[in-house]
Amino acid sequence: MSAPLAKTDIFNRVCIIIADCLASDVNDIQLDSYLFNDLGIDSLDFLDIVFGVEREFLIKFRKTPFEKFLRLDTLVDEKNQSQIPIERLDAIKKFLPALQLPPNEPSISVITLMSSLTTETLVLAIEDCCYTGS
């Protein structure tokens, strides 16, 4: 296994992938930029970015905790598919530094979850996939 990349190196490469996907300026992307709200990506852009990350870093998110963002059906409540029970977030909380969990609520909406994805989410997922053997 090669030496781990510095977080700033990963971030810079992720910014290039996002900027390329959105045809935007790489300097407009910050570590704490919300992917959907700040950068204006949609679900297809998200998949394009994820595939770009996999190509760039020679990784696959399949069978890693990050895959749950690509397979929301593994998270949602069976009775109310727009909600995710809080306990199902345990495996992915580490990728969500911006997530604000509501106190005393049993679940959050899928929209809340996806709205909390940041550029840092991708950086953390890459680190997890590359350097923890996930």
TrEMBL record:
- Every copy of the Carrier domain together lies at 8-83
Does the keyword Phosphoprotein feature in the UniProt annotation?
Answer: yes
Q: Which UniProt keywords apply?
A: Phosphopantetheine, Phosphoprotein
Carries keyword Phosphoprotein? yes
> Known InterPro entries for this protein?
ACP-like_sf, PP-bd_ACP, Ppantetheine_attach_site
The protein, known as: Acyl carrier protein
Organism listed in the record = hydrothermal vent metagenome
